[in-house]
Amino acid sequence: MMRIVTIVLFGTLLTTSSFAQSDSAPPKARQEGATRDSQQLWNEMQEKNEQYLKELKEKDPAAWEKLRAQQILDAQEALASFGYGIVFTASLDEKTTEALRNYQTRSGLPVTGDLDTATIKRLMQDRAELDAHIPLGPLYMFLDSDWNNFVKVEGLWLEQGKEPDAKTPVRPAVAECVKSAGLCTLATLGSEGSEYIHLEWYDIQRWDEYEIVTKPDDLPCGRETIHINRPGKTLLLINVAAYKNAEACTKLFGPPSGESVSRLGDVSKLMRARMDASRAASIRIKLISAEAESRIRP
pTM above the 0.90 mark? Predict the structure, then answer.
């Protein structure tokens, strides 16, 4: 029988009669898989881009010159934002070459004065660090005033037993349990900047005065269970690796590592970690004069 479930998610009323199937890994494992895929994609793109530019330089030198000029202009904009005080000329003039040498020295790169692949990659990484998003929400909410009928928990996915750091992804989630329906729903926002919502539902195994525990959800790469504890005001998502297709699951999530536990928590520690990382990146990347240092540092 089809279930119609209505949930309030991030201020928006969602009504659904079908749900996206779980990918059978907790938030931590999903993020690690995404990181591996992103790095592999980056490497493949770099190889293709280098090959394309090499072929373009031979076939159409004029078009190659235009693309190269745009690369240099992008690098000049990045270097200027880092405090290197150069003019945007879209050419490797003397000031740009000097700035590149200085930047390469400070960054531990081979000092060539040229805009090579390693330098382009580091410039992109440094700009991304300085532009890193500082999350302001969500705050953690554990709403249990109607415990015998309905419970709602809202927060941010964090790894149980580990403090968040600047690389911890921002993945807000909302869980709602309805006793009369014997059901808990879990909605998780996708990666940062994404509007994708991952929606799952779980049958309730036990609901007593202190706890709500769902039945294990048997998935292709694991068994997933929600534990809600009223006295501790906690929600844990427990995933036990159970690879039905070892090759496919290992490719997605890495080798099985036993039990993985994620919890819904507050954004405040992640916010502080990212603020600290942003300040450290600013000190490392930006070229700040001694006079400016004396004015802003304690």
Answer: no
